[in-house]
Amino acid sequence: MKKMILASLAFATFSFGQSVVTVEGDITSNTTWTASNVYFLNNQAFVDSGVTLTIEPGTVIKARYGVYNASNAAPALVIKQGAKIMAEGTKDKPITFKSELEPGSANYGNGRGLWGGIVVNGYAPISTTGGTNNVEGVTGIPYGGNDPDDNSGVMRYVRVWNGGAVIGADNELNGITLAGVGRGTTVEYCEVALNLDDGFEMFGGTVDLRYCVVYAQGDDAFDTDEGYQGRGQFLVSVLANDSDRAHEMDNRTNGDTDSQPRSHPKFMNVTVISDSAGHTNDNIKVREGTGGDFRNYVMYGGGGDGWENDDNGTELVTQTFPSSGYPNYLYVSKNNVVNKVRTPFKDSFSDSSFTSITADAGLSITSDTTTGMITSVDLTPKAGGSAFTDVDTLGSWFHATDFKGAVGSDNWLKGWTYLDEKGILKDKVEDVYVLEGTITKDTFLPASGNYYLKEQTFVDSGVTLTIEAGATFKARFDATAAFSGSNPAPALVIKQGAKIMAEGTKDKPITFRSEIEPGSANYGNGRGLWGGIVVNGYAPISTTGGTNNVEGLTGIPYGGNDPDDNSGVMRYVRVWNGGAVVGADNELNGITLAGVGRGTTVEYCEVALNLDDGFEMFGGTVDLRYCVVYAQGDDAFDTDEGYQGRGQFLVSVLANDSDRAHEMDNRTNGDTDSQPRSHPKFMNVTVISDSAGHTNDNIKVREGTGGDFRNYVMYGGGGDGWENDDNGTETVTQTLPTSGYPNYLYISKNNIVYKVKTPFKDASVEAFTSETGDPGYMIESNTSTGFITKVDLTPTPLGPAYSKLDNPFEGASASDSAFFDEVYFKGAVGSDNWLKGWTYLDEMGIIVEQEESLVALGGDITENTTLVNDTEYYLNEQTFVKDGVTLTIEKGTTIYARYGAYGASNPAPALVIERGAKIVAAGTKDEPITFKSELKSDDANYGNGRGLWGGLVVNGRAPISNAGGSANVEGLTGVAYGGSDPNDDSGTLRYVRVWNGGAVIGVDNELNGITLAGVGRGTTVEYCEVALNLDDGFEMFGGTVDLKYCSVIGVGDDAFDTDGGYQGRGQFLFVQRAADSDRAHEMDNRTNGNTDSQPRSHPRFANVTIIGDKANTNDLIKLREGSGGDFRNYILVGGGNDGIENDDNGSELVTQDLAAAEAFGYPNYLYISPNIVMYDVVDPFKDFDESGETFTESYINKDPGITYTMGSDGQVDKVNPRPILGGAAYQDVDNVINDNFFTQVQYKGAFDKVNWLDGWSWLSETGRLQTEVLSIEEDQLVRGIPNSFEIKSNYPNPFNPSTKIRFGLPVESNVKVTIFNLLGEQVMEYNLGYLEPGYKSVTWYGKNMNGASVPSGMYFYRVSVGSEFKIGRMTLLK
What we know:
Elements: H1 3-11, E1 19-27, E2 31-33, E3 37-47, E4 52-55, E5 60-63, E6 76-79, E7 84-88, E8 95-99, E9 118-121, E10 133-134, E11 142-143, E12 153-161, E13 166-168, E14 171-172, E15 176-179, E16 186-193, E17 200-203, E18 208-215, E19 222-225, E20 231-238, E21 247-249, E22 266-273, E23 284-287, E24 292-310, E25 316-318, E26 329-332, E27 337-347, E28 364-367, E29 374-378, H2 418-421, E30 432-439, E31 443-445, E32 450-459, E33 464-467, E34 472-475, E35 491-494, E36 499-503, E37 510-514, E38 533-536, E39 548-549, E40 557-558, E41 568-576, E42 581-583, E43 586-587, E44 591-594, E45 601-608, E46 615-618, E47 623-630, E48 637-640, E49 646-653, E50 662-664, E51 681-688, E52 699-702, E53 707-725, E54 731-733, E55 744-747, E56 752-761, E57 778-781, E58 788-792, H3 814-819, H4 840-843, E59 855-861, E60 865-867, E61 873-881, E62 886-889, E63 894-897, E64 911-913, E65 918-922, E66 929-933, E67 952-955, E68 967-968, E69 976-977, E70 987-995, E71 1000-1002, E72 1005-1006, E73 1010-1013, E74 1020-1027, E75 1034-1037, E76 1043-1049, ...
Parallel strand pairs: 1-3, 2-4, 3-5, 3-6, 4-7, 5-8, 6-9, 7-12, 8-12, 9-15, 12-16, 15-17, 16-18, 17-19, 18-20, 19-21, 20-22, 21-23, 22-24, 23-24, 24-26, 24-27, 25-26, 30-32, 31-33, 32-34, 32-35, 33-36, 34-37, 35-38, 36-41, 37-41, 38-44, 41-45, 44-46, 45-47, 46-48, 47-49, 48-50, 49-51, ...
Antiparallel strand pairs: 10-11, 13-14, 28-29, 39-40, 42-43, 57-58, 68-69, 71-72, 86-87, 88-93, 89-90, 90-93, 91-92, 91-94, 94-95
């Protein structure tokens, strides 16, 4: 208890602003520092072994200023061995340690040495004799041990400023000292600024550092010694002129330069900044036998030496990476950048064999010559500079990077560091980077670059060009002369053996386009303004000799004999405005894939406004996925020369003057049967054209090409749909051949051809058929430009695009099966339009979506079906998903059920998943899936909202106890469940809400909200809710299905009902009973009159909260008919009769002794933990003594602090199911079963601090769920809005048992109420969150944080509003 500190708070240090908490001495129990206080570090504070200090994001710790020496130790925070610091800030809320002095104050000086620092001591190995030592500046605190994985906690987004106080001759504290700290500790996103001694010093140990920075320290930035063997990546040192070094790395212990463990830091991606004109010390000194591994460094500036090494032991000092000998080598990569440094290498490094890259990385600084500190620094390297070439590869712990130095194009120091806060960090103004000629070595082009494609640019064989997500390339336009053979159009050409790694993202696509902007004089229709991208590979082609050259290029071959050739990755790449004419009938395509192999990835790529083809595949085997072409001048997807690749999810939106969506050829040297025969396998393709304007064929397959074309949707066309001529000997068919690949052309009769003048043309296909139903697309065209200006590519739900689907796996090879995705729609787009957010079509507003009408559901669903969230569904009758079929329901979907008078002849609507079928209903908290009645709550027939339709029934093949192993669900006819597979998988139910169900359809025959009948544990059921069901909420008829985060609200019968040999598990379950609800659990086992039937019902439930109503006289839980079970961490609150009743036993053991239960044997016991909480229940246990068993009837009778009130409708009116922190729910918590399902938590009941019902539950949606600890009410004694923050006298005062604490808010404010006793001890604290303006009151019921009533006496309450607070006094009289 914070007795002394809080007493000081209450009576001495209250002021307007945050509370100030003084910290000094030992911290001997787990402690949390909160962002609502400012902590004052008065002297050295020690966190004792076994204790955890937790610091909230945004917390500020200020240190006392003074004149420090051995007798006046500088304030410091010291984490002892075995203690932990959990300081987990965030970018937006870093944790800050700093001096109490502000810049500009009398004693501030240069900001250094104003206090001590942070010292963390661990048990990891060090090289000191005896294996332990003490940190300089701290007395009698050891570090070191033999555990390299020692864990001293987490430091993330922690800033340490102004430290390093001198406390003796050559005796200062570092900013952050990590002494014998192990690699189990996390140190990342940490900063030391203005420290008089070192920034970070690692005394031995193995701790790793990531994303750390030191600014303007007095000594070294990152100092290592005593056998340190940790790793570091993304480290920044910005030196002042009087700083010593960025690194000073030692190993000698007791005079031995070969002492073990030998210091061997592995540091990668480090940036070192100093001023060549002012900093004359070495930048880095590695000495006294230290080893190490140093790669991807960028060192900028230095008036002294760059790398110095002396006083060696026997370690190998080399620039050739050793394959063995760790830790007895010192390796400095020759690819490190050393720029603007007087002497790059000195002493042992000065041998002529030690080299580095000296080219400018593009960093820059400015310095203040008076202070000697750098005042601005640009740490972002320039595009195409030395930081992006010859990048070293790293080991498994390290993040792979495409750059050297600590910073790439995304500057992680922004938003949280001293460097950024003080305006020292500057952004680069990037020069134009011109692409031309030949790229002869691996190159990385960051997104920050301003790229200009001047001419044909070639990536040489063996070279990889990597392009960062978000990069844009503008291509030269020649306004003076047309492109031609003598004036070739700019293009990016990837030669055979080279690679392009262009991996954009949906949010950051990579774009190639003309420099000409739309609307400018030369833009025209946007086509042909530059060349395009050409990728050449070694995959087979049909040309004689096996090689060829791409049109529009000279002397660049493609083709070979490797079908798996890998030319890199193109993902989220956009190519606009290309296809320049370079000769008669000689243009470049948008993306040319010439002899490219299937090892290459091409997906989410777009070509828009290309004068020639969009994509052209000259032979090869490359696959395409999620690719689109808009308004090209020639063909969208063109194939020839033996192309044998695959494509899925392809879109062609043709202009009126476009040629075709596909033009597919095979003839080579006049031979229509040339081999390899072109045989594209394209599935899920959408072709759009304007029937009134586009008169060419949509698709032409000719010259002997084969192919396999399924799940197409062709919409519009004033010419022919599919044309086929000039055949070879290939079979042309609509019956899928079982053999003969590649010598057939198969066009599925299930493809849709709609609004096309002539669906099939030429003799070979004139008898072919297709589906002709309207897919639900829409287009608008501009008759002047001939371009489509609006297009809706999303098919009508449950329309023809969702029926008669082709199986892409039928007749497929293993390779084909691995490539194609199983889908539930035809065409390239289902309900989720993947073109949104990144394409030209979306950016220009061409993609639109139409309003869809409501869709009725009923009867049998016999094909895989998806219900989409932009459509309302009407459950008209019992709807059955048949064996082998998957019903997928998108997040956010709502299904309304028909209301009627139900009975045997008029069965209530229900959704029934039959055995062998699956439901995949994966909602989210923000977009749950909802089943509910069509009636609104104000409808005359709504009543109490129950029984308005049926429910959701899932049937599986898991074991049940019924004779014969199968049965039928009540309320249904002829639908069986049960089997022999405990791991049966019926799909996923996540964030699914089922409201208003349970319709009566006969005497004692109703449907449950969610019925899980013989369902196996392979099924996922989590975050599901049943509210207002007339019968049970969840009923499990046998099976093994598990439940997590499930709730039942106000049902008419039981909440969680189990029988028929159910042996599943449940955790985090919540029940809110209504006044007329039956039970929270009714758990049975008897089958055919046998209470010992097997499998015996044995539910294992933990962390369950049950809230009853004292007016309800039913039991809360009834366990009967031989049911076993295991029940732990329960909270039961409010019951007008029995808490737990047990009767009609079989031979099972009924006990509260877990050891006895386990010895008796699963599943033949019923175990109820003696630690369950039952509060305000009339009779906690009933009938537990009737079968002769010994049952102690133990439980905890303490108020857990759960609050609720019942409404006049018999339902809960307001409820907060979260218990009081630290109260009964947090005492004597049971260990849960240790398996792969249960989560061990430190509380009872279903809730901790987070209310997982908030935001999606019926309680939340109807405003009944209280998410705050106290209910906030409008003050009944005064109305209006005050002019300023004020408190009113609490009422009543004196009080017993409760009083209202009253206050007024002039504006919306963040409010906290804290209650103290006369000793200054904190009794209770409530964070009320943001409240609207007005007069408010909250009720205190005279209880402390443990839920216990406090004694009579005087109490103080403090109402804090932001940085302001006021104090009141009240008296409790009993």
